[in-house]
Amino acid sequence: MRGRTEKIPGLIIAVFLLLFLARPAGSNMMDGGKDGNGGAEIPDVVLRNVTVTPVRAHVGDIIRIEMEWDYWGDITENYYDTNTAAVRANGKVVASKTYTADFGGVRPGEVYRETFLWDTKGMAPGKYRIRGEVPLILEKTPYDNYLDVKEPILLVPAGESFPAGKESGGSAVAESPY
Q1: Which 8-state DSSP code applies to residue 26?
Q2: Is the pTM of this model over 0.85?
Q3: Is residue 21 part of a domain?
Q4: Residue 63 included in any domain
Q5: Count of other CB atoms within 10 angstroms of residue 138
Q6: Alpha carbon distances (Å) from 1 to 11, 78, 140
Q7: Which of 26, 77, 88, 103 has a CA-to-CA distance to 172 between 20 and 30 Å?
């Protein structure tokens, strides 16, 4: 019995260290686990939706990608971060825009919408997997900053017809599970 009770203080100390001392980089016990600047919460951006139109197109067509994201965290206390939201096709950036984490007055929890246009001129025919990304440098949950669209875009050579039963157009949506 004595062996079990001797392990309890060690377990309590380990739990204390994990729960109360583990803090994000740059923070300390005095700021309560915030971002290290003495007050602001660590910022969090969540990419909510990526919509791609059309998903069947000819090389040279414009593909429209709409992304929606929102901000959770306190951006009012000295935290402004300029980053690049991007659209990738098979891993290559095909459209991007610079954004600032304060979103020009959008309050935490409000949705920010941005439209990206991908000019497919010069692209090889084939299938393209689309990923939307909205990175943030001090992000506390980076896993919710990107979405992969499950249905690939099909690009066929200009002037050629689509595979049997398919026509130009269509859309695909990826939505966040968070």
Answers
A1: T
A2: no
A3: yes
A4: yes
A5: 18
A6: 16, 55, 43
A7: 103
Express each pLDDT in 50-86 by its tens digit. Answer: 999 999 999 999 999 999 988 776 545 545 667 889 9
Residues 3-57: pLDDT tens digits? Answer: 555 666 666 665 554 444 444 444 333 333 444 444 455 667 889 999 999 999 9
CB proximity list for 128: less than 8 A, separation 6 or greater: 89, 90, 152, 153, 155
CA distance 45 to 53: 24
- H helix intervals, the chain: 2-16
> Quick one: tokens of 4?
């079990």
Which residues are paired to 55 by β-bridges?
none
Query: Looking at residue 112, what is its pLDDT?
Result: 83
C-beta of residue 147 within 8 angstroms of C-beta of residue 36: no
- Assess whether 88 and 171 both reside in one domain: yes
Task: Taking the CA atoms of 11, 12, 17 and 18 in sequence, report the sign of the dihedral they define.
Answer: positive
Domain of residue 171 covers: 44-175
CA distances from 131 to 86, 95, 101, 158, 164 (A): 8, 11, 20, 24, 27
